Amino acid sequence: MKISDLKLLDQVIEEQREDAEFRDEWDRMAFARDVANRMLRYRTEHGLSQRDLAAIVGLAQPQITRLENADHQPSFDTLAKLSRATGLEFHFEIARAGVVLVDA
């Protein structure tokens, strides 16, 4: 297979959104992905490795990996640690659709 034959991630996701089970899980994990994107942006803008960020925040490096992979919803305690250590702010709403990150 040639690299030119590969689909972009957005194309694959859009195709998968036709599947109700995938769509439900994708929507359920939106908050975790938003947190992961903010963490990754902060880390790269500050030239930090995952290990560096873990030390600053007071977490283990594998926890940073799991957060950046959006493998699970972050806890309130974890969000508080991230915010205290980095200045990142997380504003969210909890509604029938789940947890949604909102702009401040």
UniProtKB/TrEMBL annotation:
It comes from Protofrankia coriariae. It comes from the Bacteria. Signal peptide: none annotated. InterPro entries: Cro/C1-type_HTH, Lambda_DNA-bd_dom_sf. Pfam families: HTH_3 (PF01381). This is HTH cro/C1-type domain-containing protein. The lineage of its organism: Bacteria, Bacillati, Actinomycetota, Actinomycetes, Frankiales. Residues 39-94 form the HTH cro/C1-type domain.
